Amino acid sequence: MPKKIYINPGHGSWGPNDRPCATIPYPMLPGTGRPDTCGFYESNTNLWKALELARRLQADGYTVRLSRYRNGPYPYVAGAQNAEDYNRPLSEICEEVESWGGDMFISIHSNAASDGALVNYPLFLYRGPDSENCVPGSKAMCQAVWPYLVECMKSGLEFQNYYNNSTNIRGDWDFYHSHSVNSNGYDGYLGVLKHGTPGFLSEGYFHTYQPARHRALNPDYCYQEGLRYYRGIVSYFGTPADRKGYIMGVVKDRSQTMDGYNYYNYKEGMHDTYLPVNGATVRLRNADGEFMGLYTVDKKYNGIYAFYDLLPGTYYLDLQADGYTTQQGTTNKIIVKANSTTYPVLYMTKGTSTPFETVDGTVTVTVAGKGIVKIGDDEMHEGTGKSKVTPGEQAVFTFIPEEGSYLGKVVMDGVDVTKYVKSNTLTVEKVSSNIKLQVTFEKTMYTMTLTVGRGGCAVVQDTILNMALHKYPVAHGDDLLIKPRPFGGYDIKDLKIDKVSVLGDIRDSVYTLPDVTRTHRVDVTFQVAAGINNVGTAPLRVLYEDGLISVSGAKPGNMISVTDMSGKVIFRSRATDTDCAVRVSSTGVYIVRVGKMSFKLMVK
Ligand SMILES: [Zn+2]
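Above: query sequence and zinc ion SMILES. Below: predicted holo structure tokens.
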């Protein structure tokens, strides 16, 4: 015999006792003090949850009965004869449950604290004291369903601030500190539980937590709660679990908060801080890149989207909304598991919206630097080009650097995938979207070893290298320009490349080593100019020549500073040896201090 489940969607009309609450799209109307019937009423949300639960159970062969199948009447007129037609007396529901003789009873509600309170958690109530259930099986049903119900809160999509690591299953006698016997002899507090069928009343969440209330304006958010009861009930009765998986998430603005909105007191640190992207379009694709569905987010400030009845596996979510940068490709990768829902919180960034592309395997390749990207028979060179791969199949990208270059970086759909490149090959096991590939080939760098001797400096490319041993990088194919610069009282002694003198090859004060393709050693030496003696006690000299102020003969450890006319210090360093040079770029007067000595220099 199929199991019989009686479902009571709590409340039933659009009156003052149906928990009307204000939301941004549906504030309280001045005429009634209640929102439009599309606004928040527990009657609406409880019914959506119950209908989805019923639909799922019936599809599995359960026999299902609901205490009501709709809300009404409309309009609600207080005191009218039909005002509570769908809000049936609890005693009448109990009589119906009793005579129907089901295997399980569930009453579906949401909880309330003071409006706007940052309080949210589920509560299951069965009839009896905390220690024991009056109807055997009731407590066990609660325990079976609880782990399924809390899936959404545990995922972080919904706020939960209590019972995160325990259940909140209570007997109504102890929870309310009161109980009484009805005419059928059933002893309890909650009127709807005064019958002999095992089961419980669920307060699935708090509708006074305002962001959750806005989510509940979206039927899919409520259907998902119904689906979670279904999973728990199926688990309790031991019938086969759902082999399909589901996605329910939210689309949020990356930066704009909900500060300043009414009816939206949010929990800091949660995604509830951020503006839901009303009207966003969410596209679902499977691992083969095939289109699986579109969801248009409503404009009720909840950001909710949902996809149903999915085979377990990998999926991709694309996002598009006016005023936001479109997301498509492999950015939002989602894993869907059987008998559960995945709850992705997705953020969009303000920017230019572009339409969704058709997934046909187009690969847009941008190559920077010297090298080739091979895709099948296509060879892509420096610049931007297009190629094609086959959706659902493997794709192989090969990177061939030219001589003197190497593969620097590979970015696929905005993500650096360089580390996945093996032997200059990147393999995408299954093409699930069009692909944007940015490939950078870098020039090979060679490290020059340069020594500069006492009595001058070397200007290498544009860098001043003072007396010391230097490591200087040069890119493959570049020319290396070396300009030895003797200080006052010194001459160039020699310039050696790889220990071979090239002094005779200096032209216009510069030696050019063309087309560097390997490392080199460079030695620059100076000697005391003819007629000057006593190098060891060389007098302190400060000179300006050809863009450089040079200091020679300073004591190691002396502080050397160069100040321009405005008083700005353009160089300040302790002399590591006796000589150094400083580049000055504009004309005028400079003050050079060496230790306690000051020099005034005119640069023309
Ligand atoms: Zn209720």
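Residues 4-237 form a domain with the Aminopeptidase fold (CATH 3.40.630.40).
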